[in-house]
Amino acid sequence: MTANQTPTWIAADWGTSNLRLWAISNDGTVLDMRTSEKGMGQLAPDAFEPVLVDVAADWLKTADTVVACGMVGSRQGWVEAPYQTAPCSVCPNTMVKAAVQRDGLTVHVVPGIRQTDPADVMRGEETQIAGFLSLNDDWDGIICLPGTHTKWVHMSAGEVVSFQTCMTGEMFSLLAEESVLRHSIAESGWNDGTFLEALSETMSRPERMAGQLFSLRAAQLVHDTDPQTLRARLSGLLIGAELASTKPYWLGQNVALIGADAVSQPYLAGLAAQGVNVAHADATEMTLAGIKTAHAILETE
Amino acid sequence: MTANQTPTWIAADWGTSNLRLWAISNDGTVLDMRTSEKGMGQLAPDAFEPVLVDVAADWLKTADTVVACGMVGSRQGWVEAPYQTAPCSVCPNTMVKAAVQRDGLTVHVVPGIRQTDPADVMRGEETQIAGFLSLNDDWDGIICLPGTHTKWVHMSAGEVVSFQTCMTGEMFSLLAEESVLRHSIAESGWNDGTFLEALSETMSRPERMAGQLFSLRAAQLVHDTDPQTLRARLSGLLIGAELASTKPYWLGQNVALIGADAVSQPYLAGLAAQGVNVAHADATEMTLAGIKTAHAILETE
């Protein structure tokens, strides 16, 4: 086995629900990738190291450095990595070391970013943005990171100028799965036309939003509207409300979107309908690129 | 025991979660009231009669007529009482009889009301409105019935002209108890100033709503804002969004509110802040008055 086939460090994206690990050689090659469902949400601080050892014992024989981003650095995580305060660089040069038992192991945790007025926070997205910037020199504009809690981030000269979080993904899940609408919303399926029509409705008349949600249930009771159409309509109403709220971010701006395909498509379609052309980057690739950027900063220190 | 102390009929408000029964004498006196948690949501059609007999066996010795309103008349209830279609009278003169085993017993179920465009439905509220009209002759205007699914109803000449449902109560519960905000929202407590300020924000800038919910979580993380203040702020944001949506109903109109005190107070305060003076009637009293109206119609048939 040559040095180039031996892991020398480990990249970790450790979120609330999941853990994703990459074994990386000294020339930056990704040798292997593994995932676990042991997310931060179910781990006490002293349970993180055993999970790491359990998933990556063989890698740890040669890799003694771990760089981790995400909720692993929250107050409920392995070690609290205090937020940087925007405006600030996304380059994670203020990492915090987690407590470990294993001799020679060092775990660096990337801090999140907070904003004081209006109050907002991110953890994990800053690393994806750092990865995007590492691959797109001198990129200025708006970055949208759709997900459970979608972030809209104004970037300028490598700094987070301001950002805004919308709970659209979580609202969709709660309404589709937990509310009275669950009786009328399909678990999957889609209709582009319905989605764009609903999005346009809340974009142009956002003040009507509160009165439109129950109408999804009523449409099925009164008109027997099919549940897949109602699923697309719920998504359109909610993403339309988000686009109305974040219009000062994206209107007339240079916009890039970082996300997995499934969660990105509705945003790309919705923004295109508003005349916004959006560059699209994969979330996992940007996370890995961002962790590599953080590791490179460690090397030069 | 005189005839006036003997139940001759039973009024039932049978909702999704609860059942409320009143024993009523031949001169309309309420002799007794009982409640049960055996709501429609947990009962198969053939389980309703045993629950009724279990709760009110002694009353049924002399009372052979039951008049019931609420979800008991839904497709999943004891018997489906098909919706009347608005515009229509709230006087429940199209009751449906439920199937019963017991000799001599008759159970009449009050129908709900539906609207075709935009689609909407109510079940139970129509009876509260009928009760309100029976106590307020020639009343025209808007009736607001706050609750899990708040109704705004335009009444004219004893008819429901149109109505609109907002899921504000259910949204509040989902966000405060099931979403990421649950970590930051107190289970009780209040702050009038915070509530009215938040309500004013979404009333005047409803397009910002989607971006303001996560800020409740962030406010605690960044500024350590206390959870009771955040509870009042969440309520203010949501009721403000509802008032923005229903403005065509209440602006410049004669408004009455039917509801229990706890659920009514935020609406009364919010509407007062918008310069709307609102009459307030108790929901339980209006339900009973409405069921009495329905029973009186039976008597005259």
TrEMBL record, chains A, B:
This protein's record includes keyword Kinase: yes
Swiss-Prot/TrEMBL keywords: Kinase, Transferase
Gene3D superfamilies for this protein: 2-keto-3-deoxy-galactonokinase, C-terminal domain (3.30.420.310), 2-keto-3-deoxy-galactonokinase, substrate binding domain (3.30.420.300)
Any one GO MF annotation of this record: 2-dehydro-3-deoxygalactonokinase activity
Record bears the keyword Transferase: yes
Short name of any one Pfam family annotated for the protein: DGOK
Matches recorded under InterPro entries: DGOK (IPR007729), DGOK_C (IPR042257), DGOK_N (IPR042258)
GO terms under biological process: D-galactonate catabolic process
Name of the molecule in the record: 2-keto-3-deoxy-galactonokinase
